[in-house]
Amino acid sequence: AQKVTQAQTEISVVEKEDVTLDCVYETRDTTYYLFWYKQPPSGELVFLIRRNSFDEQNEISGRYSWNFQKSTSSFNFTITASQVVDSAVYFCASSYGNNRLAFGKGNQVVVIP
Amino acid sequence: DARVTQTPRDKVTEMGQEVTMRCQPILGHNTVFWYRQTMMQGLELLAYFRNRAPLDDSGMPKDRFSAEMPDATLATLKIQPSEPRDSAVYFCASGLFTMAYNEQFFGPGTRLTVL
Predict the structure, then answer these.
(1) Cα–Cα distance measured from residue B10 to residue B105, given in angstroms and rounded to the nearest whole number
(2) How far apart are the C-alpha atoms of A2 and B45, rounded to whole Å?
(3) Interatomic CA distance for residues B65 and B27, integer angstroms
(4) Is B36 exposed, middle or buried (0-12, 13-18, 19+ CB in 10 A)?
(5) Interface of B with A in 19-58 (CB under 8 A)
(6) Which candidate in A88, B52, B80, B115 could, as Cys together with B18 as Cys, close a disulfide (CB 3.0–4.6 Å)?
(7) pLDDT reported for residue A57
(8) Which residue is closest to A5 within chain B, CA to CA?
């Protein structure tokens, strides 16, 4: 069964510190996609990044970066030089079946000014 | 800037009443999803459609929930009769899926409170 685990429930950081969110997934699919979504206090889920399972190259996009390691089934996400606007719940998700997504429970990130 | 829209944004109703939530997917997207978010269960997939045809509704309580897509611009989720345990935020999402998997875009959600 598809399962996504985000162990840390709430993370507090001081503004300008980096914050890394851990995500571990379980899948039986040979090809799959991994995602990170952000849910700010307004409530809407915002797509951040997508990575497919056959490309383990890690990337940086602005202040966001991610580390995908297929061998350990991990897809970690880092926000560099955090800002107050980064305060939100962050969800990791994994695709399965016919374009469905399984979501983790989310990480509440609190950035203290 | 194309967005998924949902109405109503907030709904308070009494137990036993019918509730209908509406979603307008992004124009051109061929797949629509309904999710429910609660503190206890997190985000759960209720049902989804591809080219207006239902692909999976196994996440929904069949006796009281129903989901439809009357046309390509409207998806509905109905609860009849509603119960207090249905209180949650209901999200609609849409995406364009072809050979590759593309991201889902979420609407702002409908916050449902059943008293």
Answers:
(1) 20
(2) 13
(3) 26
(4) buried
(5) 31, 33, 42-43, 45, 48, 50, 55-56
(6) B80
(7) 72
(8) B42
Q: B109–A42: do the CB atoms touch at under 8 Å?
A: no
* Residue in A5, A98, A108 to test binding to B, most B beta-carbons within 10 Å: A98
Distance CA B92, CA B77 (A): 9
Give the tens place of pLDDT for each residue, A83-93: 999 999 999 99
The 3 state secondary structure assigned to A66-95 is EEEEHHHCEEEEEECCCCHHHCEEEEEEEE
Chain B interface includes A43 (CB < 8 A): yes
The one-character DSSP state at A46 is E
- Which tens digit of pLDDT belongs to each residue from B46-79? 999 999 999 988 889 889 999 999 999 999 999 9
Whether residue B93 contacts residue B86, with contact meaning beta carbons closer than 8 Å, is answered with: no
Of A45, A91, A99, nearest to B101 by CB-CB distance is A99
Cis peptide before B54 (omega within 30 of 0): no
Q: Please tell me the distance from the alpha carbon of residue B72 to that of residue B28, in angstroms, as a whole number.
A: 9
Q: Which residues of B touch A27 (CB under 8 A)?
A: none
How far does chain A reach from its first CA to its final CA, in angstroms? 41
Distance from CA of B26 to the nearest CA of A (A): 14
Kindly list the residues from chain B whose CB atom is less than 8 angstroms away from the CB atom of residue A52.
100-101
Using only the alpha carbons of chain B, give its radius of gyration: 14
